[in-house]
Amino acid sequence: MSKQLKPWRIYTEEWSPSEEQINSVFPVEEIAAEIGKDLSLEVLRDDEVRLKYPDLYNISVQARAHNRGLVELLQTYYESNRESPELASLLGVQLPQIMWVDNLGLEDKIITILISKLNKDEVFINDIVLVKNEDFDPLSDALLDKILKNLRKFAKEQGAKYLSGYASNRNTLKLLIGKGFKEDHRPNMGNDYLSSIAKSTGEQFPYYDEL
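Below the sequence we write its predicted structure tokens.
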């Protein structure tokens, strides 16, 4: 019977960023000078992300489902579909997403950000990697500050009051806290519970910033 479980409603959001706003987030020439490589960024939207990077796409889908208390749907579908393009429809969560990703052809992406409109007040960072090389040496503080400032401005232009995400580990959380973010214990988002779990597992630490 559990396999027949269906969402009773669809949670969906909208935004309409201009091409100029999308292109304003990354100072591409400055990053290229710092990493010593020619750089251009591919921009993927919505289903392009869902089909090409379903595991990353699903991070905010799972976050919205958790925030809305869709416990039964998550228990039924999440673990077996966490890397599937079908998870969003199974949970009834449709969120617009934008991904900037480098074209360097390396085994690992070194310049990429994936964001979602999580709800009417919040933009969520599904994935963020801002490093110089495959040794994962970080970009300079000045350049990191500039990109994050641009990202905050972009989120605010989309009507967001908050910019949030999950840090993959304690080191990433420490870096983000050093850049003005805070650990996210907001009970109305269910992140007090997630934060306590993260302290046990050492991964997926909720963080946010008020814009």
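The chain is about 40% helix and 20% strand.
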